[in-house]
Design a protein that fits this description.
The protein is mainly beta and 259 residues long. It contains three helices and 17 strands.
Length: 259
Amino acid sequence: MEYGVRPGSPYFASTDSASGPSFKGYLPGGRSDYSRATCNDPRHRLVRPAGRGPAAGGPTYIRATLAHQAGGRGYHLFVQGLKLRTTWASTVQVLAPQAGTRVQGDDIAENTVLRNRAWVHADNMPVTEVQRFAALRDHLQVKRVRTITRVNNDIIEPASAATQPLAAGQIVTFRLQPRYATLLPPQPGTVTVTDFLPAGLAYQAGSGTRGGQPDEPVVETDTATGQTKLTWTYENVTPISAPTETMPPACQPSPSGPS
């Protein structure tokens, strides 16, 4: 395995795109710098092992050389650990299918189609035959990571609180169950849980718990409406990889009625 580093910058000045991720209508090669690039370019520095690539300016190419390939055998090259940026790393001209410019620092818009290609060279095949492999490519379509969030709010005690009047000063314990899930590979994020107590209820300071441990919310009271807003914020939470799982543990504040 060898890792190629482009001189000057790891980014290409121009590239191509497509109208969709499954589009295959372009001729092999193309006009952009990215389309015309090959792993045999003498300007590239090839480094080993992979750990030297970033120190040398960041790898742009990953090249695997097979000294011998048995007849009827196939080989696969898997590249793992790549992460898509949220903004463009460099200003690049897009030549096809429509001319445009991807500006460094701008957000990468959802549904943007990114061209991804491979290049094959063989010493034991006619050039015309190898040209068939010049079209090896696919197109990646950008999709935002989406999460499914909602909060279930249940009264724990007294059980009759939802249907019967309560005496002033009586304690009502309720449980919030936030649901935070995704159908895509989960990525850590910030979760904010918000609940509103109606007029006539006041939050009992020190009563909030999460997983049996104290967990106090930020308390805000609207004097005009009498409502009390409770807010919990959790950093670096990884969603569950299913749309119906509940994020444990639950928040259990205890509001009390004013005397």
